[in-house]
């Protein structure tokens, strides 16, 4: 027998203190929700800088059992997308409720997501740290060879450039600006859409960083210096226990010294003092990440459609994408995900259209076949 839910949708600013407390309780009671992206303060920050935040709440016998923070209109998206590396329904364990259930009474045709839980999705890289020496001792031979190479690079750095130092929870404005500059250069180099160019997105990051190291939900900035130069930075969202590596960059002049890896190893050493039990490197386990992952969660992108005209259009595109995948690879999927990124960051139609044209041009130049 299906369980009935009492469902309502509120503007984010109308959520009561009691519902915020219940949100926190749901998150704390469900191990699958152990991520700062599911913290109510994160979505409150998103709403204050981007606006348009809504929360759909499901109750049973008056008690809150599930909720979905979201943005958008006819084509909706998770709150904070595309910045949010994890997106989900906040619910008690074993609660059987879907996006379609929650949004059935809304004027929503489709809900596009990029990082929802999926048993068949892509892996993420999650590091359960504990004591650094125990964590390293449990790694396999591949990691030990990797660590040996990293230590050789550390010696080369100190011989060629000078002493290294790490500053955890840095308040250095120059380091913050250097990181943003490196990321924007990388977006330009790769032709990807620059999500940091949007005032709302950049405002979220700066707000969370400026809260400082004592805030319950914040962005911590860790900085590695080679001599007097800023070599690498990692800005991560954290609730105190879980540090989610979010925006990472390094000085390209130091590429051969692997400054990003050196910084990560220093952060592992500093984790107990910082209170981190988990360092989450986010989506993907390729490249260097395969040396570090101890646990993984699986996430996928996609769309949930509702029985409306807009939903039928979105479902039709999804079917076309699947039907043409053998011929086009993931080209249509990439286009859909790129549009979702752009529409989330750029509310103005003219700017959105220009960004889409630019994205298409970059795709054609990089993959003319």
TrEMBL record:
Domain BioF2-like acetyltransferase: 145-290
Pfam family, any one: Acetyltransf_6
Protein name according to UniProt: BioF2-like acetyltransferase domain-containing protein
Source species of the chain: Algimonas arctica
Lineage of origin: Bacteria, Pseudomonadati, Pseudomonadota, Alphaproteobacteria, Maricaulales
